[in-house]
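Hello, quick one for you while I still have it in my head. A protein chain has come my way and I'm curious about its shape. I'm sending you its amino acid sequence along with the backbone structure tokens. I'd be grateful if you could look everything over and explain what you see. Here's the protein in full, and shout if anything looks odd to you:
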Amino acid sequence: LLAGLSEFLQQFLANRAATLQDLLIDFVGIGAGTLLALAIAGKFTPFLRVLLGLTGVCLVTAAFYKPFSWAAAYDVRNKNVPALVNFESKWEANFFFTNDASIERTSPPPAWTQKSADGIVGSITYRKGRWPVFKFQEIYPDWRGYSHIKFEMYNAESERIRMTFRVDDVHHNYSQEDRLNHRFWLMPGHNAVSIPLTTIKEAPVGRDMDMSAIKDIMWFASKVEKPLRVYLGDVRLSDHE
């Protein structure tokens, strides 16, 4: 009753939403507690009490998977610096966000000779849309002490693609003038991009980007009319051009 009432009331509160998923998660917690209570105090055979207890423990343990996966993801992210994104760890996918796009970890295409024998890359499919995007959320935040951000991309299409590389810090006010929007053409085949961090720092109008508190980086394709496939290699901070 409390779980249902809580979800019902949330539909009337600002910045909250009532969802069936949250209600089901509440029921799983209620079920786990009930099973453990029955295992401890229920009048059942020893075998059934053990079975009820193990089932309850499994449900409780499953609740810790998400915080464990995030802890592992942050650990991998922090240890990889100066690499910001390298697709080597599955935990890294916790930070991935897409809209009108999808991404998967894969081997580089054989035609990408600069990377064909070099580990794992991200395969991004941009679907039809005005601004399909791949975002890495909560990127390693402190870029001080470096001079450039560099990344490599491979365009598997026969035509060039209009791209925007965007950087936000934690103070971003969600206006176009308060971030870096680096626009470039992604030519067919291999592309290497290097951006001075001074350009990023000076990008917001009326203030400096906080280079100790970078929040998100993302790659947009522009006005996509058909699915486009591109590959993204390592994204790294560097102290030289």
